[in-house]
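Researcher: Next entry in the queue.
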Amino acid sequence: MLDPKSPENQENPAAFGQIQAAF
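Model: Structure for this entry, 23 residues:
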């Protein structure tokens, strides 16, 4: 969905964890 290197993901690491769980 979003690139893990994206600044949005760096600002929201918890959200990135949820994205990984969704996959």
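Model: The CA atoms of residues 14 and 20 lie 10 Å apart.
Researcher: Noted, moving on.
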